[in-house]
């Protein structure tokens, strides 16, 4: 992610100021180095939007030949077919009326924050009960998962683990005991008990019936 946000392209007019896509005469790249942002030479480009879709697509494809790994564009505005082409090609499109180097830092910081949030969400979505230091003993904080993703039911979060993982004990931290425990757990030869941890959450310990 870091490398992808270290290069950005700015669409400019003949006075070297940021402009709309349909008014640009050239674009420049800004690359992040240890000493700060470095500006490339001008790359002449003026898109002819008078033709059909194939003509516009070909025109922009020629432009993108100079982009290499750059996938961030900054412009005053871009709409219609050009916007769709850049969007479907995986570009991050940033619109701003004015431009300075602080804008590059702000965009970079925002993208890093978004990436961190995505990583956190992904971690929560794929997170399964984690094995503790004791082999076969697992812990799962259902409250944390559902606080971030209330659409994920306890059954969706827990059933795959209960059916597919060999374990001795699974401790589930939850706001309340999932009602499906009463019927589903016995069918899997499982049982549960509640442990008092002196906090506001429920600590439900699931074990195999044969283990008791």
List the total number of helices: 6
Describe the sheet with the most strands: 6 strands, mixed
Stretches with pLDDT under 50, minimum 5 residues: none
- Average pLDDT, all residues: 89
Report on this model:
This protein is α/β, with parallel strands linked by helices and 212 residues long. The chain folds into two domains: 3-122, Dinitrogenase iron-molybdenum cofactor biosynthesis domain (Nucleotidyltransferase, domain 5); 130-211, Translation Initiation Factor IF3 (2-Layer Sandwich). The chain has helices at residues 53-64, 80-88, 101-126, 142-148, 154-164, 181-187; strands at residues 7-12, 26-33, 36-39, 43-44, 72-75, 92-95, 130-131, 137-141, 169-174, 190-195, 202-208. Strands 1, 2, 3, 4, 5 and 6 form a six-stranded mixed β-sheet that branches. A five-stranded mixed β-sheet has the order 7-8-9-11-10. Strand 7 (130-131) and strand 8 form a beta hairpin. The longest helix has 26 residues, at 101-126. It is elongated and about 80 Å long. The two termini are 49 Å apart.
């Amino acid at each position: 992610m870091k490398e992808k946000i270290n290069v950005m392209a700015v669409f400019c007019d003949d006075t070297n100021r940021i402009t709309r896509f349909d008014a640009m005469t050239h674009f420049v790249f800004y690359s992040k180095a240890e000493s700060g942002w470095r500006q490339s030479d001008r790359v002449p480009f003026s898109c002819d939007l008078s033709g059909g879709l194939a003509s516009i697509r070909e025109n922009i494809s020629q432009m993108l030949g100079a982009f290499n790994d750059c996938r961030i564009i900054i412009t005053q505005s871009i709409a219609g077919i050009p916007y769709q082409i850049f969007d479907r090609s995986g570009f991050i499109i940033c619109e701003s009326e004015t431009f300075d180097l602080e804008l590059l830092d702000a965009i970079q910081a925002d993208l890093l924050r978004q990436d961190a949030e995505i990583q956190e969400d992904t971690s929560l979505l794929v997170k399964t009960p984690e094995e503790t230091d004791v082999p076969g003993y697992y812990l799962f904080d259902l409250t944390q998962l559902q606080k971030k993703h209330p659409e994920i039911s306890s059954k969706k979060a827990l059933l795959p683990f209960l059916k597919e993982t060999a374990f001795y004990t699974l401790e589930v931290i939850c706001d309340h005991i999932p009602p499906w425990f009463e019927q589903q757990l016995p069918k899997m030869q499982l049982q549960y008990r509640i442990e008092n941890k002196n906090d506001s959450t429920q600590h439900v310990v699931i074990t195999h019936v044969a283990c008791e």
